[in-house]
Amino acid sequence: MDKQSALQQMIDESGRIVFFGGAGVSTESGIPDFRSVDGLYHQKYDYPPETIISHSFFVENPEAFYKFYKEKMLCLDASPNAAHRKLSELEACGKLSAVITQNIDGFHQAAGSKRVLELHGSIHRNFCMRCGKFYDAAYVRDAAGIPRCSCGGMVKPDVVLYEESLDSDTLQQSVELIAGADMLIVGGTSLAVYPAAGLLRYYRGGKLVVINKSPTPMDQSADLLISGKIGEVLGAVSCR
């Protein structure tokens, strides 16, 4: 049996699938990832990207932070791809329990997914650091320099920066979903970012699928390993 057929058979036999994804899920939508050859970590800036998107840098150099953030992370003109759409379809037909994502672009919700756990937050939620007023992503994009609230406070994206903790409720829900899944599909992630990648150890089932273009630390543990583009692989799956 070829790998695509094996994936289809696993999905056919499952009813509590959880999908765990990373930046590679959105690269087919034109969103840059971090660690691939053309990823953000391989581009030239005055500071390394991992420094720019840290909490301390945000506090100390908000102008430089927002310049990078608006240019490279606030991608409002892109749209969901075949992977996002198929995951939404699998949820709608009762196969998929939830999507757990490291991405902040909101594409899963835009494609129709209802239960999405965003480990690293979302560009679509922004709050004044002084009064808590909400602002959408377009407001941040269109602001000249540092986005400011009507009260004068600085607006911060609801994204988890380096040096910040993940939301404990989101982590707990993710642990419970992965522990209760009868199939876990891991896609588009190098599994290099912790604590997010550590969530996979809670899976106890026998259908662990890894779909990624490059090797991951979970390859040896996978029941099915597919090297390829996540959109092409999931796009060929049927919900039946």
Automatic annotation (TrEMBL):
Binding locations of NAD(+): 23, 27, 34-35, 102, 104-105, 120, 189-190, 212, 230
Gene3D superfamilies: SIR2/SIRT2 'Small Domain (3.30.1600.10), TPP-binding domain (3.40.50.1220)
Active site as annotated: 120 (proton acceptor)
Keywords assigned: Cytoplasm, Metal-binding, NAD, Transferase, Zinc
GO CC term (a single one): cytoplasm
A GO term, aspect molecular function: NAD+ binding
Coiled coil is among the record's keywords: no
Residue sites binding nicotinamide per the record: 34, 104-105
Pfam family, one: SIR2
Subcellular location: Cytoplasm
Protein name per the record: NAD-dependent protein deacetylase
